[in-house]
Amino acid sequence: MSNDRTVTVGTATAEPGTAVRGVIPVTTLAGGTPLEIPVVVVNGGAGDGPCFWVNGAIHGDEPEGPLACQIALAEVDPAQLSGTLVLCPVVNVPAFEAAERGNPADTFTYDMNRIYPGRPDGYLSERVAAAHAAAMGPVADLEISIHSGGAHSFLDKAIFVDERPESVELATAMGPGWGCIMSSFNPSGSPMAYMKELGKVGITVELGGRSATSPEAFARVGRELADSILNILRHYAMYPGEASYPSPRYKGQQQALLAPASGIFLPEPGVEFLTMMKKSDPIARIVNVFGDTLASLEAPADGMFFGLRALPNVTTGDWCCFFCKVEGTRD
Ligand SMILES: [Zn+2]
Fold it and tell me: 238 CA distance to ligand 1 centroid (A)?
């Protein structure tokens, strides 16, 4: 099938069969430099198809999305692609430059994953979200936002969906190992929620974070996420090759366990990510500087944890464990 359409996102206009870099302009900063979101549009030369949009680093302490995008960009041949692949490696640029979850200069709308579709006349991060949403909304059909455990935690493969069949389908297309598929705890304010408002499909995926940024571990995480981008392209017949899928696929709800005490966070020996456990099975302890146990964390239900704190220093109320209360399997 011939493809005679161009695709424009921000300043990037891509003819069929080309990959073009550009930016989504937001505003100008006090020093006179522009605040803009980098983007690359890969317009397929092999035929028509959907537009699959990948977002990274909405949280600035999560560099896994940018790595996945650059691997996918290097490997996807525009001539063999049907439809369009849009990569936004770093959505929250000021937060990424600070290596913090949010833009430290914006204390009013710090968490950018809670404010979509933003406000064009709002606080600075709201304006970033508004510019991003305005660019993505009319163009994207399918969207994934790549997250991780950031500066404090490691998260293994986990996905949040809105439970529409098309949302679960996109999650399943992430591929082998991605069977922890939970209902979103975040019904508004995220890019996936915005996509749903538009009648389109978005999901939130998690992999990586602290303790997986050593050379081999970070490369592995980027490779796995890039494999998922390629697997999604194959699932939707946008790229040559066979897709593969997770088995089993679990259905559940996230419960984030917060530290009941301050001290040093010590996971119990032998506990494993993404492995079924029983309610009340031990997960971790918090000890004081002398080694006395101050608190224990236990499985709040039958299920599995997909994330653990990887920064041992812990203060009461900090994130410690990301648990999936498993409700069953998806068949
Ligand atoms: Zn995140």
Answer: 27
pLDDT tens sequence across 286-319: 999 999 999 999 999 999 999 999 999 999 999 9
Question: Which superfamily is assigned to 7-235 in CATH?
Answer: Zn peptidases (3.40.630.10)
* Secondary structure (DSSP) of 48-88: EEEEEEEEE-SSTT-THHHHHHHHHHHH--GGG-EEEEEEE
- Topology match between the domains 7-235 and 252-329: no
Rounded distance from Cα 2 to ligand 1 centre (Å) = 39
- Rounded to the nearest whole angstrom, what is the distance from the C-alpha of residue 8 to the centroid of ligand 1? 27
Residue 231 identity:
N
Whole-prediction pTM value? 0.97
Cα 269 to ligand 1 centre (Å): 27
Q: Spell out the domain ranges in the chain.
A: 7-235, 252-329
Query: Which of 70, 151, 169 shows the shortest CA–CA distance to 159?
Result: 169
Residues with a beta carbon under 5 angstroms from ion ligand 1: 59, 62, 147
CATH code of the domain made up of 252-329: 2.40.50.100
How far is the centre of ligand 1, averaged over its atoms, from the C-alpha of 196 (Å)?
Answer: 19
